[in-house]
Amino acid sequence: MNVSPLHTALRLTAIGLPVLPLRKGKVPVGNCPDCKNSACGDRPHMKAAGPCRCPAPCHGWAAATTDSDVLTSPAWATAWRQAVAVAYHPGGAGLTVVDLDDESAIEWARQTLPPTRTVATTRGEHWIYQGTTRSVNAVRAGVDIKSTMAYARYLGPGTGATAPLPDAVRALTAQKPPVVRPAPRTLAVPVPAGGGQCPHRTSTYLERGICMAEQRITEARSQVHATVYRTFLAVLSTHGRCGCLTDSHVSRLFTAAQAKGESPRHCTDAWANAATRLGL
């Protein structure tokens, strides 16, 4: 007998897992119009829980809840009708998931990490530990760490006893972010009429745009390459001609992209390609 995602979600809340629906493509519900592009005035990926007062499950991992009344509320009904799976917020349950994507990653874990509760996935395994750490993708080939500010698809209870989070995993997530190197060629940005004066009314306009771009990259669950390129293109189309972008702004965007597993070379190429397309 097929069990509905909502039924599964309600069962998981009973054991303390904060859950949320996943729609087609195994991704969270998209932002509602009131919250799209942080129009609600909040930044979900910077919050520990409950990003805003929106009643809909439209803030990814931050919408995860153990409140059955919220899960069965009218605001969540459409999401559950569209749901194809259930995800949970590991950090909210005091857990860390080591996501192993292939056999080589699994073999590395067997040789490096202590045995723990294991759940089979489509391509590999989830190793689940008690304890939390920051979430980092691509800490090594085929290995993602999902804990705080992340979600993991629920694929069953797994087998084995849950072991304490080992120092080896904490060490992986504590690594310094890759050094962001400047583009190898200078991007010539033409100065507009008016002596190069920035047309934006306030500096907060630029800051909000960079924050939204960082968020868009951080929340990408698939097609990361394309998302990074489109985000760079959007930033340059808005701010590339007035001279208000600084190296600090570009470094923030590159850092967000590299945290999603992009290489410094890809960031440089994506930025240059976006500038070329816009004729900068």
- What is the count of β-strands? 10
Q: How far apart, in Å, are the first and last alpha carbons?
A: 58 Å
| Overall 3D form | globular
- Amount of helix: 25-40%
Structural notes for this entry:
The structure is a single chain. This protein is an alpha+beta fold and about 280 residues long. Strands 4, 5, 6, 7, 8 and 10 form a six-stranded mixed β-sheet that branches. Strands 2-1-3-9 form a four-stranded antiparallel β-sheet. It is globular, with a radius of gyration of 21 Å. About 30% of the residues are buried.
Tell me briefly what this model is.
The chain is an alpha+beta fold and 280 residues long. It has 9 helices and 10 strands.
Please describe the structure with a list of short key phrases separated by commas or semicolons.
35% helix, alpha+beta, four-stranded antiparallel beta sheet, six-stranded mixed beta sheet, 280 residues
What topology emerges from the helices and strands here?
Elements: H1 5-13, E1 19-23, E2 27-28, H2 68-71, H3 74-82, E3 85-88, E4 95-100, H4 103-112, E5 117-120, E6 125-130, E7 136-140, E8 143-146, E9 152-153, E10 163-164, H5 167-173, H6 203-218, H7 224-239, H8 247-259, H9 264-277
Helix pairs in contact: 6-7, 6-8, 7-9
